[in-house]
From TrEMBL, chains A, B:
Spans traversing the lipid bilayer: none
Class of the enzyme per the UniProt entry, highest EC level: transferase
Superkingdom to which the source organism belongs: Bacteria
A GO BP annotation: cobalamin biosynthetic process
Signal peptide: none
Presence of keyword Lipid metabolism: no
Domain Tetrapyrrole methylase: 7-213
Keyword Repeat appears in the UniProt entry: no
Protein name as it appears in the record: Precorrin-3B C(17)-methyltransferase
């Protein structure tokens, strides 16, 4: 069998953040599958078939990729950011585990990318410069009680936090509850960063305190970063820097 | 002032994982500063001065970079991985905050890179495919009690975990204690991944259960990933895949 699957991270949007490894995989591919806006980032060329699909069909898309690879195609599954962070890698492995045994002979590789929280952190300074966690705030695939428990415990442990999928039209209430939980666990001066469309032309980064934060500051294009209790702002004439110091006092 | 500082992530080691943005910054630089093995990855060329320094001098190195930029130099501070994850970005901002006011007019940019935990996760499958946290296990700059509290709370919240700097010659006991804490909080079948020198020629990835894990499986070149309770292995003739499913049952 000469086919393969490579699950590739395209980074947050700017082409200067796509690794040469991913560019090389796309150059070798016969087929690219992925969510419509990510496939739209791949240049058309003779010999390459683009298969764009809507979101919420991650398992169908994964099965399609594995079937084509089993037939000898060289398939790149594109994700934004890093495919291993709330993206396509876990979906492909779920499909593989539950699929025919022959799929276990297909070479499958994950090609890492710049994930949204790290691109957002870089733009703001270094808010994730010390211990931090990443939480998917969508309760489509997990009970809200699990999200709430995780939020409370990581706040109590004083991690910085990055939230993916903070708010969508179909789940407007989750981020409202998230802010309520944070207000119970953290001080009002806690810094929150709303980073929308990072590295893209419409990038918008907003710094607020927990007291100032409102639910409408986030949408599905936003990654939210909540600092630890030590996260601070450096005021500068050319714009603020938000960072978390490396040291934790006794 | 025409000088600037760019704090750039070189990724885990393989040049195919360096972003074009970082490559372009290095091409424009007059000076590169960083820890000896990272500066060694930058090609020499006329007009570029390389300033390699030992580790544990992060603040000196940051001050040096800012001083040179204030004099008009174009300075790249190189980090391995991502500069915002347990690397140079926070150190540069500490130096900037505590330095002369004029340093606040220097353009400073962070250029993200592929951090070790995401490169390691990609090699193994998708162990960080759901909520996860990143913890620096070094107690050089924080009390051990903080590390222990964080380990217990994130284990109770059932996050996957990535550990940076798990073990050094001067701190052999920290990872021993870490495994003891994990054994108190998690089941013996919990999966642990020891990923050494990821993406480099001497890469070595080892999968163990918590029951099998021993302290000598980690060193300073290793990133350790502990799965959540849902993290699983797919057995394949061509090697195992470790991944964390996207769904958490009720």
């Amino acid at each position: 069998m000469s086919g393969w699957v490579k699950i590739a991270g395209l980074g947050p949007g700017n082409e200067a953040l796509v690794t040469p490894e991913v560019t090389a995989a796309l150059a070798e591919a016969t087929d690219v599958v992925g969510y419509i806006p990510y496939v739209a980032r791949v240049a058309e060329r003779p010999g390459l078939t683009l298969h764009a699909s809507d979101n919420r069909v991650e398992i169908d898309r994964s099965q399609h990729a594995l079937r084509m690879a089993a037939e000898g195609k060289r398939v790149v599954v594109v994700s934004s950011g890093d495919p291993g962070v709330f993206a396509m890698a876990a979906a492909v492995f779920e499909a593989l585990e539950n699929g025919p045994d022959t799929w276990r002979e297909i070479p499958v590789e994950v090609l890492p990318g710049i994930t949204a929280m790290l691109a957002a952190a870089a733009r703001a300074g270094a808010p994730l410069g010390h211990d931090f966690c990443a939480i998917n705030l969508s309760d489509n695939l997990k009970p809200w009680a699990v999200i709430e428990k995780r939020l409370r415990l990581v706040a109590q442990a004083d991690f910085a936090m990055a939230f993916y999928n903070p708010r969508s039209k179909s789940r407007p209430e989750g981020f409202v509850k998230t802010l309520e939980i944070l207000r119970q666990e953290c001080e009002p001066e806690r810094l929150i960063l709303f980073a929308r469309a990072v590295s893209r032309p419409d990038e918008a980064i907003r710094i607020a305190t927990l007291a100032e934060a409102t639910p409408d500051m986030a949408d599905m294009q936003t990654v939210v970063i909540v600092g630890s209790s030590l996260t601070r702002v450096i005021d500068r004439p050319i714009g603020p820097i938000v960072y978390t110091p490396r040291s934790t006092p006794e």
